[in-house]
Design goal:
By secondary structure, the chain is mostly beta strands. It contains one helix and twelve strands, in the order βββββββββαβββ.
């Protein structure tokens, strides 16, 4: 299995990727990436944050492509191959998660389009979550299924970004 970039942000079980977040036991606010300590909701004094799997599907909130290679220390394919990125609002959470898009280009994407969580390797090998068409098979499904049945390795794209919202307000 390819090495994860950061542990604890997603898992692959039986070939199916799941983002991991935390949920406050008091106010039910959901966070991504996972948090520890105390609830960030300013109206809540809760400190009991439990790990939770986030929805695997969401709608495209925004998208773009990167037609030029990022500067060092980022590792890119040689020759550089442009990547597509999408910010996807996870169903029912209001959380927007940025990730690379597999097997789709900006010409294929539309705001409001449904995408599903999948996985794939970065140019230098680490396994990350990616977005893909619903029902598409992960590039690493067969390679990771046996390795991840007994482990919960996690990773994130170093360029990933997140936004949190609760009740229509960003926190």
């Amino acid at each position: 299995m390819t090495a994860p970039v950061i542990n604890g942000w997603f898992t692959v079980d039986g070939g199916t990727a799941h983002l991991l977040g935390t949920r406050c036991a008091d106010c039910r606010t959901v966070y991504f990436p996972p948090r520890t300590g105390f609830c960030r909701n300013p109206y809540c004094d809760g400190e009991d944050l439990a790990e939770t799997r986030l929805p695997r599907r969401g709608t495209v909130w925004s998208y773009t492509n990167s037609c030029y290679p990022p500067p060092a220390p980022f590792v890119t394919a040689d020759p550089y191959v442009p990547v597509t990125l999408a910010a996807v609002e996870l169903a029912g959470t209001g959380i927007v998660v940025l990730g690379q898009v597999r097997d789709l280009t900006v010409d294929d994407l539309r705001v409001g389009m449904e995408l599903e969580l999948t996985t794939g390797p970065l140019a230098d090998g680490p396994l990350v979550w990616m977005w893909g068409a619903p029902g598409a098979t992960s590039a690493t499904t067969s390679a990771t299924t046996s390795a991840t049945d007994s482990a919960t390795d996690s990773a994130t794209d170093s360029a990933g970004a997140t936004a949190e919202r609760q009740n229509g307000e960003r926190s």
